[in-house]
Amino acid sequence: MAHYCDLAPGHPFHGPYHDHDYGFPVEDEATLFERLVLEINQAGLSWLTVLKKREAFFDAFRGFDVDLVAAFDDDDRARLLSDARIIRNRLKVEAAIHNAQVIQRLRQEHSSFRGWLEAHHPLPHGDWVKLFKRTFRFTGPEIVNEFLMSTGYLPGAHRDDCPVQARVLAAAPPWAR
């Protein structure tokens, strides 16, 4: 099977994500939340489908502002479920809203979503999965793995010989500390 580092370069959607996002450490809460929502929405679909809809997700979920999404009501749910630009899956929409509310609660003890991640890092993959399942909705092993790799908490986003890997390492992802 080809690695993402072989498939992504030069592709109009995969290329920019591979070269500038995937595997780099993330500090911004909205970006962490975006990655979680996108990974959840990828379940059962191709990553290309999600990347093509990324801008629409950004608009539909109000820039992934945790507080705005956490306050979404029934009208917002209806708006999301009727928005053909995004993935219209009730369970995934509900998970995004619920998970935003969870992140708000995590702030009380850990000051931020990132603080919560840092407080639990490093964990083996299986322990991360258990923690995410206890904490969030719609977070199975593959979603957790991809979320953590994409945000720099687990290695494996890039091959060692991928030119992007050197930039990822220079950015000091948590897994490399």
What can you tell me about this protein's structure?
The structure is a single chain. The protein is an all-alpha fold. It has a single domain, classed as Orthogonal Bundle (Endonuclease III, domain 1), CATH 1.10.340.30. It contains 12 helices and no strands. The chain has helices at 4-7, 14-20, 29-42, 47-52, 54-60, 66-70, 74-81, 90-110, 113-120, 125-135, 141-150, 163-170. α3 (29-42) packs antiparallel against α8 (90-110). It is globular. The chain starts with a helix and ends in a 7-residue tail after the last helix.
Short description, anyone?
62% of the residues lie in helices and 0% in strands.
Secondary structure elements and pairings:
Blueprint: H1 4-7, H2 14-20, H3 29-42, H4 47-52, H5 54-60, H6 66-70, H7 74-81, H8 90-110, H9 113-120, H10 125-135, H11 141-150, H12 163-170
Helix pairs in contact: 3-8, 3-11, 8-9
